[in-house]
Request: fold
Amino acid sequence: MNFDLPEELQDIKRLARDFAVSEVLPTVDADDKAHRFRRDLVEKMGELGFLGCVIPEEYGGNGLGYLALAILAEEIARVHSSLRIIFAANTLGPAITIWRHGSEELKQKYLPGLTSGKLLGCFAMTEPNAGSDVASMKARAVLEGDYYILNGSKMWISLAPVADIALVYAYTDPSQRAKGMSAFIVDMKSEGITVEAITEKLGNWSSPVGTITFENCKVPKENLLGREGQGFAICMQQLDNTRLASAAGAVGVAQACLDAAIEYANTREQFGQPIGRFQMIQDMIAQMCVDIEAARLLTYRAAFLKDKGVPNTLETSMAKLFASEAANKCADYALRIYSAYGYSEEYPVARFFRDAKYYQIVEGTSNIHKLIISQDALGYRKANRSS
Amino acid sequence: MKVVVFTKQTFDTEAKITLDDQGKINPEGVSLIINPYDEFAVEEALRIKEKTKGEVTVVSMGGPKAQDVLRQALAMGADRAVLITPELEEMDEYTTATILARAVSRMEYDLILGGWRAIDDGSAQVAGRVAEILGLPVVNMVIKLEIDGGRALATREIEGGSEVVEVPLPAVITAQKGLNEPRYPTMKGIMQAKKKPMEKLALSDLGLTAEEVVPKVRALKYFLPSPRAQGKIVPGEPAEAAAALVRLLREEAKVI
Reply:
């Protein structure tokens, strides 16, 4: 048992913090209020190697692994949660999935671009009527000659309005239920694709999200990942990874809330002393500290298991559930400590509060994670299966 | 072109400085960074290396923590690092410069770079002293540097403008803000840094004894600036308030 981060990960934490503070923080409020997506920051993350952290060197990555990824995600989200979504959707959506299941041609074609930030990828599973119940999706892909003909509608797709490629899940054989689902890489400039941005949402304003409609969209058959019918398994594996980045992002948002709360509690004076001297404020600060520490350790453990290459669905679910709830509690407490100033847009706490909500919803709602965890404990359904 | 860069680990620019029971600066819990002026020097060395296919050696003095600074420079692209840990109770600029000059004299070099001052003690003496010991020309506060064959063309800040000076190499050049924009280390660089050589030296490895580097200057006392006094609001009608303000500035604040 060793809780020390290896030196190179300490250095990466410092690098991620430097990047976030120097490149993101100066304009974060203005960017967020303008709902501005910063492609230049994507490329900067590519140059620094962030986007290649789980991709091996031969395809443009650096293979530092999932613990490195969790550290990056936390430090980015600590400054701007929106940018963390962009980082994770690209890296753990199409990039890692192409590396795991794509042909050599697909790897050569897409991975150098996805790791450098020259290409941006999104992933599309959710549909208007298929959220938590992923398998109930309606999208269809039918093989005709050299192409799959894709039809269907995907909703709440992060980066849809700005992505160059998408990892799309659709049924090739609906009669087989989940075993009839397949995964494809789709060029977003293909004919038959319509993207509509969802512009009004609660938080994470600088991370574009949208609806993608496929109408007889032709996808070259070599863009199938793995084999027909492997889509659901690929999807679950992908979610396991994006969930880790969500957990880490939630830790980052929680930490941002604590940082802000401490600063304010030490400077704001009421009744002749800094409000941090009042025990009810101290109670909130203490709870935030402990929740963040626990969430971070759960996240690091899930990442550690991923780097080790052993099943980790259960541990990842625990990290995601706990960290998301911690982020929301911390945002709530930070807002209480800031009180009226927290309610105003003058301080970033209102943004943290809006952005935190996202983490209870994406990559499996908190309730879905409770299902995974409790059913494993009760012996109904084992969470960690090595498939 | 072989370039040696002096780097110092300093307190973070945003660190809150406190004094301990003995009245010394308290290093507990303060985050440490590479001295920003030294970071400019590292960046400049790397640019020279990239142009001339050279080699960059970074040198730092301090305890094991100072390795963080060297690792950062290695991750940015420096080739090798030297950490000197003299384990001395008291040091001054004479001590530091004597040790660094001895360390550099064992190396091959065409150019020595460093920040023009460290942001902590701000003495701005060490690079100049090293140049003096080694018998090299020194140019301070450089904002532009061109290397041409065996000469360096350095633009430096002077009161009201700039001055361009030429010196033969080897020389000591100190960096001022504006010289360049330091790069970030990349993740790949961070991994490569682990494999690069880091030489660790004690005083005795340099053939020096503690007696030879006894400081000539001793700090007698440290004190923090007195906290800013509460502001005062002068109430009343504008004309009367202005008159009252002028009286206060003259009689109380004694600034006019």
Notes: The mean pLDDT of chain B is 93. Residues 36-52 of chain B form the longest helix (17 residues).
